Amino acid sequence: MRTRIQSFFRRKSAAAEAAGKPEMKILRDGETLSVSDIAELAAINGKSFNLQLSAALPANVRHIDIDLSQTRVDCGGVGALIALRNWARRQNRDVAIRLLNPTHPVRRLFNLTRMDQVFPIERK
Amino acid sequence: MICSSGATCRLALPARLDAIRDAVRGAREFLAEQSLAEQELTACELALVEACNNAVAYSHAEGADPEVQIELHCDATAVEMQVIDHGPGFEWPDKVELPDEGEEHGRGLFIIQSLMQETFYLRGHRQNRLIMRLARGSADQPNHSADTNVENPGVRASTPAATSTCNQPPEEYGIASNSDFAAGKDARTPVGQQSPPPQLAAVQQKLALSEHVIGTMAKEICFRSEELAAIFRSTSELGRANDIEAFSERLLNDLLHLTGADWFILRLLPKDSRKLVLTNASRADLTLPPIELIEDHAARSAEAKAALSRSNVSFHPQQPLHPEDALALAHPQSSGLVKPILMGQTLLGTLTVGRHAGQPSFSSEHIQVLHTFSEFLAIQTINIRLQQEHLDHRLTNRELDIARNIQQSLLPKSFPKLAGYGLSGFCRSARQVGGDFFNVIPVTDDKVLLIVADVMGKGVPAALFAATLHTLIRTVAEWTHRPVEILERVNRLIYDELSGVDMFITAQVVLADTRRRRLVVANAGHCPLLATCRDNTIRAISPEGMPLGILPDVAFEHAVVPMTDCSAAILYTDGLTEARNAHGEFYSQERLFKWLQQNQSPSQTALSLSEGLLTELKSFQGQVSLSDDQTFLVLAEEIQVPCPDEEFAPEENSLLHLPARATSAV
Fold it and tell me: Distance between CA atoms of B408 and B412, rounded to whole angstroms?
């Protein structure tokens, strides 16, 4: 039996130090806010994703398009998307959130968790 | 090509969310090397991420090992992933369901069960194991990714193909579910069961898993039994052994056996020292220099780092020791752990255990054993230190008792006879020995020298100088009986020793001449001599003179007091006037004056005056203990009365009295 033992510990790199803060691009076009270039949406950074997005959300935005073509997502990330939607509803905002271009694994996750019934999931 | 017996990969990661991504990437790489299909890789990756998220979320407990382990095993038929954490664990719900769409949490277990064919959660004492299994080829089924069965999320959609490959475990495994094992709860919660008819392959898989679980438990029981036996052996020695080297040798050899370690190094920190000293090592010939505990050394020494940070420091090929680290020089290419030995927050030393190159790292059970054994070392180290301190204390007390007896023997055991006068003296030390003394040196039949001295300070240092001064004065008095000359000569003789330790002595020397009826008084910075006069006044006589030891050459003055004018003279040390009562008040010279005025009378003898003064002091001080030595010497005119010729043996604290002899008129 081949046995391989590996040990992964925190590497003190700029990337590790920046872990927990999703670096993303937010662009506004009229009533639509486009979010892209998210490397990861997961348990570690879901809360800060929401904080960043909610802080950057102008009052008259009606659509939020989140491009997930570069993004890894886990259930924590799904929870963050739900939290964003819940937040928008508490603000009495009629904001529509679309999930764009999820990768195959992410799409699979959305299907399993029925996110396809909560958010429109489209290719664009 | 996969080896038919399978391939295994073990990973360890700190129990932090930011460590999960790298670990899962590594796991995926390993599984990709085993030629898993993309669907299977995705399923495993997703399930593993969620399992690790849970492990990190539930792993934080006081004392828990902050590490999560992943074990992957892959063969031609199946993939098994295990995620192990060391926290309190959690209760696996009877039914894993997808939460409401508005819920932000609670989807992880559902995802795991949806993607994996079998899921077991073993919750144990400080170790929890989530086992996920996926039959290879099952993820390729068209409906594998479209799991929507909420009632039984582990069940794939019922297509013949899916059923044939996604074999569901039977209701009954033949293994007790939710049964408790050993100490603590080790509830085994089989999940994902379904009622379709059992298939041979699934039963075989279950049996293999059961054997694995039972084997693991048997190993754990054996391990714990050995650990307990070692603990009992060590417990029996606690408090009895007084040799830390021998004790640690036995204890740490047991530790090597229990943990499978190849070597150990024990360093202890001597009391009041800042250097870790090698005390014991598995290699008898090992010699290592002490390690000073300063921050600079922490970068080059794992032992110093562990000691200064009061936390474990591990080392292994991915996190090697500094090339100059003594551990690296003693055991190159080893992996292991340095543990600080603590009693509370007090650092007692460090214990390092290690394995040679190529060996796996210590498991959490091994680290727990290391923790237990280091506590034993801490207890025994403290025991031995306390025993030694007790012994030292007893020896010191014994020596002080001897010194006290010696000092008592320096006090006069009887007074010379002085016609018409009586003498009485008292000396009490604040500690076992002190710096006060008095002496009475006969010069002629009608002359005596009265000496009272007070060495600065208390205890042994003052007592040593008091003994020296006593001898010097007796010696100098052989050549001169003039008080001023005595003080001048003694000062010159003792100056170097006193100034070398920044000490000084106050002293008073009085020549009592009963023939010429006068007192000649010389004073070296001492309290004034108090003379009770016949007109009921108290005179304080204090001729000029510096304390001994201040300057090498000092000129002293003298004063002459006619004895016809006074009925008694008292020499004393400031321990009397500086005695305190319960209210913090000093007795003071004023009180002493007042008391003498009230108590002086022709009928008072030296003894009665002494006893009265002693009663007065005790009454004032109450239960307050002495802060300074107390000494006084009384010379009193006494009416000549016949009395038995007896001398009282000196009592404790040297209260002496010699009755006046009916030999000459006053």
Answer: 9
The runs of H, that is alpha helices, within B435-519 are 459-476, 483-500
Contact B50 A108 (CB under 8 A): no
Nearest to B48 by CA among B26, B67, B66, B32: B26
Helix A104-112 × helix B38-57 angle, to 10°: 60
Environment class of residue B102 by beta-carbon count within 10 Å: exposed (0-12), middle (13-18) or buried (19+)? exposed
Nearest chain A Cα distance for residue B289, angstroms: 31
ipTM above 0.85, yes or no: no
**B189 alpha carbon, distance to own chain's centre:** 46
pLDDT at B461: 82
Helices B20-33 + B38-57 axis angle, to 10: 150
Tell me the residues of chain B between 317 and 356 that have a Cβ less than 8 Å away from chain A.
318-319
Q: Do B5 and A9 touch (CB under 8 A)?
A: no
For the stretch B414-449, pLDDT in tens is: 888 888 899 999 998 887 788 888 999 999 988 999
Collect the ranges in chain B with pLDDT lower than 70. 1-5, 60-65, 138-199, 237-242, 639-666
Give me the phi and psi of B142, to 5 degrees please: -55, -35
Whether residues A4 and B8 touch (CB distance < 8 A) is answered with yes
Cα separation values, B416 from B406, B450, B521, Å: 22, 11, 19
